[in-house]
Please model this.
Amino acid sequence: MKPLILVNFKTYPEATGKKAVELARKIAAVNSRKYHVAIAPPLLELEHVCKAVKILVFAQHVDSSGSGAHTGEITAKDVKKLGAGGTLLNHSERKLSFLILKNTIKEGQRNKLVIVACAGTLAEVQKIAALHPEYIAYEPPELIGGKVSVTAEPEILLKAVRLVKTISPTTKMLCGAGIHSREDLLTALQLGMKGVLLSHAVVKAHNPKRFLEKMMR
Model:
């Protein structure tokens, strides 16, 4: 399976409103035989982005509830209907309790969404692995949005890979936080990661398409 490059738009001004669709199209235009490229646009733009591109689109979050009396909830069933193929869960900016995360993963998988569950520590990686998501993304919160890459901690990434292989062999590891270059990406893959999470490095790039092409060449 090709490594996954997942670009989280967050709610940066460069990726909201009509700009979300524009950015999605630029990223979708990146051709690569080596990698799968996916995006996570703002939830309010999810339907528009899903209609505009053919690459895999993730919701930035869903809730554990199904249809019914759940005011303000975002259901896995609904984001699936809008065209999303997966969802991010438990990002450091949208943390969930373990019980809620467990139920949300089940609900997402029941609706055939690919789950990327984020973890900020090795202890969290170990707990989440027992829930068997499709991916676990290791992202130390202190490095998110910074200049120091998570790949500067190779021993921790290696431990995370070993933990997940032992507990949930079918779960694949991603890493994120501070990934800025092709060298960061290649180092992550050499350490056993099956891809990376990117955000501001792409979203705020002068030319996001060219940035990704250089990274994935």
Notes: The mean pLDDT is 94. The first strand starts at residue 4 and ends at 8. Residues 4-215 form a domain with the TIM Barrel fold (CATH 3.20.20.70). The first helix runs from residue 18 to 28.
